[in-house]
Every structure is written in structure tokens, then in C-alpha cells.
Amino acid sequence: MFKRSGLLLIILAVYGQAHAQANGLRVPLFESPMLQDIKVPQDDIVTLTDSATLDVTDNTNMFILEGGAQVRRSDAILKGDRIIYDRAAAKMRAEGNARLYQEGNLFTGDELEYNVDAESGEFLGPDYSFANGGSGQADFADMLDKNHMRLFNATYSSCPCPAPAWFLSADQVDIYDDENKGIARNATVYVADVPVFWSPYFTFPVKQEKRTGFLTPTFGYSSRSGADITVPYFINVAPNYDMTLYPRWLSKRGLMLGGEFRYLRENYSGQITGAYLPKDKKFNDEKRWTYGISHHHRLGNVLGFNLGLNVNWNKASDGNYFRDLDTIEIDEADRTYLNQSAALTFSG
Q1: How far is 165 from 203, CA to CA, in rounded Å?
Q2: What is the DSSP string of 65-128?
Q3: What DSSP character marks residue 322?
Q4: In angstroms, rounded to a whole number, what is the distance separating the alpha carbons of residues 66 and 264?
Q5: What is the distance in angstroms between the CA of the first residue and the CA of the last residue of the chain?
Q6: What is the three-class DSSP state of 310?
């Protein structure tokens, strides 16, 4: 055994000279000038840094680092109180205060096993934070490859703050980074630590790009409607078309459904919104509804004028709809007098 602090150790895939260890010799490692001319792919190099104590086994394939150990690669950094590196199997095991930095992702926990070639491994009891902003905890994490993480008995939130406004808790969560997709099984959504929604299976986006899946739920309370919970579901129809459904539950009124459809083409754009409550328990079980249409169309050049068409048409079931069922579909100024207009515009 030999011990050396503050020594930078570069271990190459070809390590034949170290077989002197087999004869019981304690040979100090040093950086040979000849290594400067050898072009080794970055992914074939493992660097051991900081003040780690290093033990090398007789067959020179097993390295044990203790005391603030680090193993660095071009795409990952592994830290731990103790790290065991099996060079032949390309596997590392970190024990105690294990931390893995991998392309912007951070995992911390008690123990980690990691395959440096396959970029896969297992993490016991990790806290995790993804580069895309998602974070949470899990009893166990299985890194199947660099793009697929499987979490067991896990929490997840798109909010990276210590006390997120919302999070989900699920038996299993699969994160597919390259597909911008998360899949949760037997999941409950919490808002302000209050369970508001359960589903045996649903998908959600893990990046800012548009993807079909659940959006952040909202939770509120009023004396007029009671508890008010909305769980939006976004549908990415196409790059220039999308739809959002708004299932909404009001404890004193019932279940209603809202929706929004947006479209964008070269010469026109717009959106269609609406909401429907089939039986309002606070309004003699009557139907309550609203809809809105906003459309903007460039008609082109006619006789030297650029013509356009603007349509803004809104309607509600009754005059008290927005007082009782406040929604985001209609602006504050339009709640008393709903805009119903169509205008032909032109410019020279």
C-alpha cells in the first residue's frame, strides 16, 4: 500500500507497467514525459484528484480512494468519502456523501455505483437536480443510460426551489431526457403539500419545450365556490397548433371543463376558449358556460391597400357567470360588457 496526498493521478486504459505491484513492490506513480505524446480519447481517461489516499490491489485493476476522494471524467465528476474503482470492469462505487455531477445533473446520497463506459448506475436514497430544472428525492434511482433515469418511491417538481409550490409523488417515475418526457405511475399531485389529483399513469414534459402532458396545477379557495382545484393538461398538436384542457373542481358547485385552442399560420392566427359547468349546485343546478373567439387575418393587398380582418367574439350563459366562476378567458375590462366585434382594417 502507498499513501500520497495532493497528487494528480492519471490512469490510462493501458497500464502494463504497474504489474510490478504483483511482486509486492510499492512503486510510486509519476507522470512520465512520454505520456505527453500519446493521444488518448478523453473518454478513455479517468483522473483521480485532491488529497485522496490511494490503495492499489495486487492485480492493479482495483483502486481504493479515501478521504475527500474524486474521480473526474470529461463528462462527469464523482465524489465520496470512499471510492472504489474497478478499472477492468469500468465501474466505480462511492460510499458516504456520494455526489455525481453529470452534464449539469446533480445526484447526492449515501451510495452510488456507476459504470463509466455505459454512463449507467444505481443510487441509494438520492436527492437529485436535473439541468432542465426538475428536482426531487427517491428511495432508489436506476440510471439506465445517460438519457433514461428510473426513480422509485420518488417525488418530482419542475420548481428547483427547496419548498416547491407543487410536486408529484409516485411509485415510479421515468425521465427520458432526450425525448423531453416524464412518466409517473400511481402518482399524486400536491399543491402546497395538499393532495389535489391522483392518476395511475400520466406523462409530463421535463424541459421548457412544448410537449403533451400535465401542467402545474392551481389551488384556491373562496367563500362563494369553496375549494377550487384545476389540473391543466397540455396537448402539443403540432408546432403551430396546441390545446390545453382545464378540468376544474369546485367543492360548492361541481366539476367543470375548460379549454383553449391556439393556432398560427402564415396569414392568420387566433385562439378559441371555453368552459362548461353542466350543473351548478349554487345556481339551481343550471348549466353555466362561456366561450371566446379571437382571430386575426391578413387578407393581403387589394387595390394597393393591405387588408386585415379582426374578430373578437365572447359570450356567457348569464350575467353573473364571471362573478361566480372567475376565469382567465376574459380580461377584467370585458367582464361586464363582453366584446362581440368584427372589423375590417386597411393600411396604405
Answers
A1: 19
A2: EEEEEEEE-SSEEEEEEEEEEETTTTEEEEEEEEEEEETTEEEEEEEEEEETTTTEEEEES-EE
A3: H
A4: 59
A5: 87
A6: strand
Q: Do β-strands 213-214 and 233-238 pair in parallel, antiparallel, or remain unpaired?
A: antiparallel
Backbone angles phi, psi at 332, to 5 degrees: -55, -45
- Phi, psi values for residue 281, rounded to 5°: -65, -20
What are φ and ψ of residue 177, in 5° steps? -65, -40
The rounded distance, in Å, linking the Cα atoms of 147 and 80 is 24
Are residues 72 and 83 in contact, defined by beta-carbon separation less than 8 angstroms? no
Strand locations in 6-75 (E): 9-11, 46-49, 53-56, 62-72
Q: What is the pLDDT of residues 14-72, one digit of tens each?
A: 344 444 444 444 444 444 444 444 444 545 555 545 545 556 666 667 788 888 888 87
Instruction: Yes or no: say if 224 and 280 are a contact pair by the CB < 8 Å rule.
Output: no
Residue position matching grid coordinates 462505487 = 93
Q: Find the helix or strand (DSSP H, E) in which 323 lies.
A: helix 321-324
Q: What is the pLDDT of residue 47?
A: 53
The residue type of 253 is R
The whole model's pTM is what? 0.58
Nearest to 53 by CA among 38, 68, 33, 32: 68
Q: pLDDT by residue (tens digit) across 202-253? A: 888 887 667 777 777 888 888 889 999 898 888 888 889 999 999 999 999 9
The answer to whether the CB of 265 falls within 8 A of the CB of 275 is no
Distances (CA, A) of 27 to 1, 19, 21, 65, 338: 9, 10, 7, 17, 86
